[in-house]
Design goal:
Elements (H helix, E strand, L loop, with lengths): L1 E4 L10 E4 L9 E9 L3 H8 L7 H8 L12 E9 L11 E5 L10 E5 L4 E3 L6 H5 L1 H15 L8
Antiparallel strand pairs: 1-2, 3-4, 3-6, 4-5, 5-7
């Protein structure tokens, strides 16, 4: 399969299109053919390793001391379930889903394995894959700030 890979920290040109091994779902995982993903600030900071000085050491431990631990970025995705592990009950082949891979990254690839009980859900039929891919982190961020404003039901924003 094809994926956007990085093997060192730096500017956008450290990203390369490469052939990598297609993942195989474990017993509790689904294999999703990625139709859309997002580029988030977390992806950019991880790729460029631009983090506040106070977070430098914890970030290096988490992301990789000398080079990235996870070579494929991307935390949000939408796509179609291609294969399910033998213990999966919530999803079936052909389901349209959207998800956040969070610390696992990996959405900048043609395929991504996700745990059935992780942050993955059926995509609403009235939105596109692109719209669905932006929901997991973007919606959570928007909700956080809306709650901080004290907006009440019936008010206009």
């Amino acid at each position: 399969m094809k994926a956007i890979v990085y093997t060192r920290y730096g500017p956008p040109d450290v990203l390369e299109l490469k052939q990598v091994q297609k993942p195989i779902p474990k017993e509790n995982e689904i294999l999703v053919k990625v139709k859309a993903t997002t580029v988030t600030v977390a992806d950019i900071r991880s790729r460029s390793f631009t983090v506040p000085p106070a977070f430098w050491l914890p970030a290096r431990i988490t992301l990789g001391l000398r080079k990235p631990k996870k070579g494929i970025l991307g935390m949000e995705l939408a796509g179609e379930v291609e294969l399910v592990g033998k213990n999966v009950k919530r999803f079936k082949q052909g389901d349209q889903v959207f998800a956040a891979s969070l610390t696992g990254f990996g959405a900048y690839a043609e395929y991504k394995c996700l745990e059935e009980d992780g942050p993955v859900a059926i995509k609403p039929s009235n939105i596109t894959y692109g719209e669905a891919a932006a929901i997991p982190i973007g919606a959570r961020t928007a909700l956080y700030f809306l709650r901080r404003t004290g907006v009440k039901s019936g008010q206009s924003v």
